[in-house]
Amino acid sequence: TRAVLPHMLTAGAGSLVFTGSEAGLRGGAAGAAYTAAKHGITGLVKNLAVMYRDQGIRANMIAPGPTATGMGVDTRPDAHGPSVITNLIGANIGRTGSADEQAAAIVWLTSAAASFVNGAVLPVDDGWSAV
After folding, report:
1. Which residues contact 58 (CB under 8 A, 6 or more apart)?
2. Does some domain include residue 85?
3. InterPro entries in the record, alphabetically (predicted)?
4. Which residues are annotated as catalytic?
5. Tell me, what CATH number does 14's domain have?
6. Domain for residue 130, yes or no?
7. How large is the C-alpha radius of gyration of the chain?
8. How confident is the model at residue 71 (pLDDT cuts 50, 70, 90)?
9. Is residue 11 part of a domain?
10. CA-CA-CA-CA torsion for 8, 45, 128, 107, nearest 10 degrees?
11. pLDDT of residue 86
């Protein structure tokens, strides 16, 4: 943000998109530090959206749910994997999303089609955060 914001201010326009997590929408089984960090991103996005709205700069965030990446998920019953999450939130994770699906949401948020979207947190999680 520090590197790109001055250029956006000079241009009088810009779109910042942050990647948070569905853990930034509620408490989670991922641990207090992870959840707090994701809530921090959510707060930053909301603040930037208000602070720079009048300069033509938008700030939004995607909140991915389970996504197939290089990060492994420990599925042992005693680990913080899908079985523990299912027990804690009372819902099955459902399918795992792809990085391409997350990227598509980011592309949309930066597009002219989303020009009036500012300060939004877009869950990209197959409805997991709705549970």
Report:
1. 14, 15, 16, 49, 52, 114, 115, 117, 118, 119
2. yes
3. NAD(P)-bd_dom_sf (IPR036291), Sc_DH/Rdtase_CS (IPR020904), SDR_fam (IPR002347)
4. 34
5. 3.40.50.720
6. no
7. 16
8. low
9. yes
10. 0
11. 53
